[in-house]
From TrEMBL:
<feature type="domain" description="ORC1/DEAH AAA+ ATPase">
    <location>
        <begin position="51"/>
        <end position="181"/>
    </location>
</feature>
<dbReference type="GO" id="GO:0016887">
    <property type="term" value="F:ATP hydrolysis activity"/>
</dbReference>
<dbReference type="InterPro" id="IPR027417">
    <property type="entry name" value="P-loop_NTPase"/>
</dbReference>
<dbReference type="Pfam" id="PF13401">
    <property type="entry name" value="AAA_22"/>
</dbReference>
<dbReference type="InterPro" id="IPR049945">
    <property type="entry name" value="AAA_22"/>
</dbReference>
<protein>
    <submittedName>
        <fullName>AAA domain-containing protein</fullName>
    </submittedName>
</protein>
């Protein structure tokens, strides 16, 4: 039996289509996500009332929230209640529905019971209980796709903020969304709505995509280190390219080729300006290189060369993403 066959036999037995990579059940740290994590942690330490986090589409905002929630939980444990309120298809100016949505995602057992005032009372007391049990007397609430919030929603959040503040519990609301969120803040400032800006928008942070080879390298390194099954010793890179991995090859070392691949595709399509690759486009490209060209593929390449990276960039949707963005700038 050859060494290649031995390595193949050692691979974990994972049913087709169930690997974490295929199901997108993984979180890869990036320079941008870590920069945002440090900023959010600073806001929490300063007991700031809130802030806005914004960036273009496909910049990995939702993934960043998940990663930061995990990091904060590891740091603070049960001493800091953290809630993530996901995007809603369409927020309407309906107070009762708004409270139901919040009750549902903070984990209350009865989000739909009672009338409007009962729902607010239940939500406020639920959060109060969580806050009073917290060592830090703080609650962190991320609200995704917050550019969809209407002025009325902010007024209802103020009611919730004021209720908890009366009991000396600090509610920190972090509004995450697209660049329109920055425009909303500017509009509120112009209109003199300091009661909203001062509570929820006093801080701000813009999330960017990968701009440098180092940014690419940090992201790629995650696939060299994250293991599945956990503790098995089989990183994503090793699982999909076992023989190349045994020879010492790592995705981290592909940073220059991957950067060049994106640059070549941009040049071919005539995209102007400086390159900034959204995290969704970057991770989808890497996923494509592993799943479509690695050990699970019929093509089964030994390793990933520049031409393969270029093909992965094209097939992963980056071109469509950039075309869409450039069209939106012209509208």
């Amino acid at each position: 039996m050859s060494m290649g066959q031995v390595r193949e036999a050692e691979r974990p037995s994972i049913p087709e289509g169930t690997h974490q990579l295929i199901q997108d059940k993984y979180l890869v740290p990036t320079n941008e996500i870590m920069r945002l994590y440090r900023k959010v942690d600073e806001w929490i330490e300063d007991r700031s009332p809130g802030g806005i986090i914004f960036g273009r589409q496909r910049r990995g905002k939702t993934q960043a929230i998940k990663y930061i929630e995990k990091k904060l939980t590891l740091r603070y444990g049960d001493e800091l209640p953290i809630f993530v309120i996901p995007a809603k298809h369409k927020f309407t100016a309906n107070e009762e529905v708004f409270y139901e949505w919040l009750l549902l995602w903070v984990g209350h057992a009865f989000p739909y019971a009672g009338k409007k005032n009962h729902k607010f009372d239940r939500l406020a007391k639920f959060l109060l209980e969580k806050g009073e049990k917290s060592k830090y007397k703080q609650i962190v609430m991320f609200m995704d796709e917050a550019q969809a919030l209407l002025e009325q929603h902010y007024k209802w959040l103020i009611d919730l903020y004021n209720y908890l503040n009366a009991f000396q519990i600090k509610l920190i609301i972090l509004l995450v969304g697209q660049p329109e969120l920055k425009l909303t803040k500017s509009s509120f400032v112009t209109q003199g709505m300091n009661h909203i800006v001062g509570r929820f928008m006093i801080n701000e942070h813009e999330l960017f995509g990968a701009k440098t080879v180092t940014d690419f390298q940090v992201c790629l390194k995650g696939y060299d280190t994250i293991e599945y099954p956990e503790g098995s010793g089989w990183s994503y890179t090793r699982y999909y390219y076992p023989e190349a991995y045994a020879e010492g090859k790592r995705l981290e070392h592909c940073a220059n080729d991957l950067f060049e691949a994106f640059a070549l595709v941009r040049q071919e399509r005539g995209f102007g300006g400086k390159m900034e690759v959204g995290m969704q486009d970057l991770t989808t490209t890497i996923k494509y290189a592993l799943a479509k060209y690695g050990a699970e593929s019929k093509k089964k390449n030994h390793w990933i060369d520049l031409a393969t990276w270029v093909e992965c960039v094209k097939k992963a949707g980056y071109v469509d993403s950039e075309v869409s963005f450039n069209v939106s700038k012209l509208e």
